[in-house]
Amino acid sequence: MKRILLIVTGGIAAYKALELIRLARQAGLGVTCVLTRGGAEFVTPLSLQALSGAKVYGDLFSLTDESEMGHIELSRAADLVVVAPASADMLAKIAAGLADDLASTLLLATDKPVLVAPSMNVRMWQHQATTANMALLATRGVIVVPPDVGEMACGEFGPGRLAAPEAILAAIKAALGGGGALAGRHAIVTSGPTHEPIDPVRYIANRSSGRQGHAIAAALAALGARVTLVSGPVAIPDPPQVTTTHVETAVQMQAAIQAALPADIAVCAAAVGDWQMAAAAPQKIKKNGAPPALHLVENPDILAGLAVPGPMRPALVVGFAAETQDVAALAEAKRLRKGCDWIIANNVGGTGIMGGMENEVMIFTAAGHIALPRMDKHAVAAEIARRIGAHLQ
Ligand code: CTP
Questions:
Q1: Is 340 annotated in the active site?
Q2: CA of 266 to the centre of ligand 1 (A)
Q3: What confidence tens digit (pLDDT) does each residue in 261-296 have?
Q4: Does ligand 1 lie within 6 Å of residue 320's CB atom?
Q5: With a threshold of 0.85, does the pTM exceed it?
């Protein structure tokens, strides 16, 4: 039997941990709970104990706890450490490596994968400190189940609500190697910009950060898919549990994608450069005389190539449409022109989207389109992955 160590921290959403325990046990998982002092303000050890059927730990310095099971032992006896809900304070402690109570000590002492499901006020979630902590945790391979968007207990609206217990359980199962909605599927994802060389020191690029494509790769992996990510040059870390190939140009990206086929799912989130130099200069172009005329030729269209009917075509081919005007009409036209199944359209004319942390997208399919609210790119990715999982089932 696989076992999780569930750390419940303080927050209104702590009551949802009870439902998570129930679902986890129903799914055949063993659950050992640790309740922080803050968590104990919202739920009682007795309710956790009744649902988990096991002793609940709470105090680092309890001598009886230490003699029964030392905190190092507790942190290693589980297959996965889950923090749900994870407060802003606990996320900061994990990021900083603090160990001033049992929960944070366990998180520092563990050698097991860690999954966190944050829950907090929208402003706390969007604060630069939390954003920086989350980015740091991602580089260390911590699995994140992003918060949902919605009405919050404090009356505000936005991202910050604890993800649904069912979504957290799906991510737990995926992390434990059990069947998520995309278990057994292979997904390929393109992400980031391309760099098209002009000469050995100059290149044509664009503002893509790779954040959305990387988040989609991570979200597909969290649902159990085997994911191959082909990334152009970006400044963000490779997502955890994903095989990442780094390329520079569109031609290299296409070759890496061809090498990764066959796949069940293709998501082309890269901002592939439309043009390359007909012939990049072998030496640095000097500025003697008139500015050089750049003779450009079109790059191969990776998305359209993947969408061509045939035995190698993935069952679901998803493209992006970055537009600055008339988004709906252009996106649907692009879906038909490229031959892909879905187009995820965003208006990159809006402030802070291209290269930013948030995205606001519409998903176009043969059946029509739906609009998602503006939210963190991880939340957009989780929603897209969820819909892909549902579509393929
Ligand atoms: N794409 C691709 N290969 C290219 C160009 C684009 O795979 N050479 C993919 C992108 O990853 C994205 C989709 O096609 O999924 C749309 O890209 P976009 O640049 O918005 O569309 P274009 O076809 O280039 O059309 P236009 O520039 O006229 O808007």
A1: no
A2: 14
A3: 999 999 999 999 999 999 999 999 999 889 999 999
A4: yes
A5: no
- By residue range, what is the domain housing residue 197? 186-392
CB 344 within 8 A of CB 384: yes
- The total number of structural domains in the chain stands at 2
> Among candidates 318, 346, 317, which has minimal Cα distance to 330?
346
Q: Which of 146, 176, 206 is the last residue of a domain?
A: 176
Q: Which of 195, 276, 301 for mutating ligand 1's site (highest number of atoms within 8 Å of CB)?
A: 301
- Asked if 129 and 195 sit in the same domain, the reply is no
Q: Which residues of 106-144 are buried (b: 16+ CB within 10 A; e: fewer)?
A: bbebbebbbbbbbbbbbebbbeeebeebbebbbeeebbb
Unique residue bearing structure tokens 């003699």: 67
**What is the end-to-end Cα distance of the chain in Å, rounded?**
27
Is residue 144 lining ligand 1, measured as CB closer than 6 Å? no
Give a yes or no: residue 181 inside a domain. no
Q: pLDDT for 91-129, tens place per residue? A: 999 999 999 999 999 999 998 999 999 999 999 999 999
pLDDT at 134 over 70: yes
Q: Same domain for 170 and 190?
A: no
* 229 and 252 together in one domain: yes
Closest CA to ligand 1's atom 12: 320
From the CA of 330, how far away is ligand 1's center (Å)? Answer: 12
**From the CA of 332, how far away is ligand 1's center (Å)?**
13
- The answer to the question of residue 303 being in a domain is yes
State if residue 133 touches ligand 1 by the CB under 6 angstroms criterion: no
29 lines ligand 1 (CB under 6 A): no
CATH code: domain of residue 340: 3.40.50.10300
